[in-house]
């Protein structure tokens, strides 16, 4: 018991000594074997079994001494396994929006709101981005523009832009070509205000909702409502 207590104190002070003590103990045990012992374990099958037993016994010792511990903070982690679904964070989205603004040479002061929602049920939250300023560039009397971004493991790609749109926008549970239907508001024109259904065609959503027929549904229970105000 005293030996164990002393050993524990040594291990708490310096973990590497723990491994040396254990190895020394096993060497002492092996050195005490007789010729009969070695003959008994000379069978290849028994050697394999013995090795497995020793590995099983030493595994917790090595783990306790920190040899089989978790990688330290900042260590390079292995790449995700192929096919693994990772929901990208918001910083990847803001970077994609900034690239869109730069590529289209839009005003650097572009203001927007965004909502993350899994539109194609792949486990990643896509994004609807409501561009709200500057007025006269992204918005007018007819409404504003919305960008639809698809989420990938580490980035977002633009599906398409929709304009003009007024809030609120409703996200349906019903799908077209694997993507959820959107219902948007069109108003501010000479024609009567209307709600229209935006159906994904396999590549994108309709870019101009004003050209679509009115959506007859009036009850949006079960829909997800976003962008309540312009």
Q: Could you give a quick summary of the protein structure above?
A:
With 230 residues, this protein is of the alpha+beta class.
Radius of gyration: 32 Å
Distance between the termini: 75 Å
Tell me the fraction of residues in β-strands, as a range: 25-35%
- Overall pLDDT: 78
Q: What shape does the CA trace take?
A: globular
The secondary-structure element order is HHHHHEEEEEEE
- Would you count the extended β strands for me? 7
Number of helices: 5
Give an overview in words:
The protein is an alpha+beta fold and 230 residues long. The protein has helices at residues 2-13, 15-31, 35-40, 44-64, 90-103, and strands at residues 111-117, 126-133, 144-151, 156-176, 179-186, 194-198, 224-226. The longest helix is centred in the first third of the chain and has 21 residues, at 44-64.
Write the layout of secondary structure elements.
Layout: H1 2-13, H2 15-31, H3 35-40, H4 44-64, H5 90-103, E1 111-117, E2 126-133, E3 144-151, E4 156-176, E5 179-186, E6 194-198, E7 224-226
